[in-house]
Amino acid sequence: MSLGVTPFEEAGRVVGESEGGGTVDLWSASLEPPAPLRAHLEGYLSIDERERAARFVFPRDRNRFVAGRAFLRLLLAQYLATDAASLRFEYGPHGKPALADDRSGVTFNLAHTDSLAVCALARGSDLGVDVERVRPIPDADGVARSFFSPRETAELAAVPEPARFRAFFAAWTRKEAFLKALGDGLARPLDSFDVTLKPGDTPRLLRTLGDPEEADRFSLHSLEPEDGYVAAIAVRGHGWHVRHARWRWIESRRAEGEE
Ligand SMILES: CC(C)(COP(=O)(O)OP(=O)(O)OC[C@H]1O[C@@H](n2cnc3c(N)ncnc32)[C@H](O)[C@@H]1OP(=O)(O)O)[C@@H](O)C(=O)NCCC(=O)NCCS
Q1: Is the separation of the CB atoms in 31 and 131 below 8 Å?
Q2: Predicted TM-score of the model (pTM)
Q3: Pick from 64, 46, 67: which is nearest to 3 by CA?
Q4: How confident is the model at residue 18 (pLDDT cuts 50, 70, 90)?
Q5: Structure confidence at residue 210 as a pLDDT band (50, 70, 90)
Q6: What digits encode the pLDDT tens for the residues 168-178?
């Protein structure tokens, strides 16, 4: 059996800046592929990924992890024109995966929420991605006080009620994407940098504590990969095109001689 995707050119659309820079491709995928495919996906994973999959308590979480790693591998295999199963990852000090022994310069980052995964890919630049389902947050202002900077908390409180949850998740995903671009996880305090969040404001890193030039080194991009979801990408440098495409889990029976 082989798996295929809708060619990017058919599904992609430009959602970001247009001058200079390279291209960031954002792919979104369901983590619940058609049942006939599921049993085959684990075959793409490495031994350590299978061991990790086996440690999940709930089958649904396990299946989603397997689908996420298979999606990541199949996608990278298309960009690198290689076998999904032969790809090797190395991990940063806080667990950020990257291609091992790689000369292509392809960088990527994966995020998931519920049954939706997104993967951002670029060439030659650190990047991070996050995705969240926009949903009501009881005591959003209180949660913001715990996770956001004072400036972000004040801006959020000033956003009128109907738009507040979207603004909350705009900020959340932008902050998380920046942390993921750095690969630092929560080693970097969440209140040590500010992002824009108000509806209509250009996604931007406004300030980082300690290094006045760091904010200018990264650009942020926000988009809706599916209705009701918001994603953000943080990427080193400016002038990037961001394109979005949907991954289709396609079973190619021809490859199995089942025509
Ligand atoms: C991994 C981390 C960076 C994000 O975790 P998360 O929000 O649970 O998960 P996401 O769906 O965004 O991303 C998970 C994926 O990121 C990748 N990843 C793991 N560690 C990473 C790191 N340090 N940096 C970047 N990417 C990382 C992996 O591919 C992982 O998926 P996989 O293991 O299934 O392949 C986590 O360590 C963390 O620090 N989260 C901060 C959460 C938070 O409080 N955010 C507040 C924002 S205001």
Answers
A1: no
A2: 0.91
A3: 67
A4: very low
A5: confident
A6: 999 999 999 99
What is the spatial distance between Cα 8 and Cα 40, in angstroms, rounded to a whole number? 24
User: Is residue 81 in contact with ligand 1, taking CB distance under 6 Å?
Assistant: no
Q: Is residue 5 over pLDDT 50?
A: no
Residue 56, phi then psi, degrees to nearest 5: -70, 140
H/E element, 50: helix 47-54
> Which class is 12-249 in CATH?
alpha beta
Do the beta carbons of residue 8 and residue 243 sit within 8 Å? yes
**Closest atom of ligand 1 to CA, residue 92:** 23
Nearest CA to ligand 1 atom 13: 111
- Three-state SS for 231? strand
8 C-beta closer than 6 A to ligand 1: no
- Alpha-carbon distance 129 to 231, whole Å? 7
Q: Is the predicted pLDDT of residue 10 greater than 70, yes or no? A: no
User: Does residue 174 have its Cβ closer than 6 Å to ligand 1?
Assistant: no
Q: Which residue has the tokens 């490495």?
A: 46
Domain coordinates in residue numbering, the chain: 12-249
Distance CA 231, CA 99 (A): 23
Q: Give 252 Cα–ligand 1 centroid separation in angstroms.
A: 32
Beta strands 205-208 and 193-195: pairing type? antiparallel
Residue 44: both structure tokens together:
């793409």
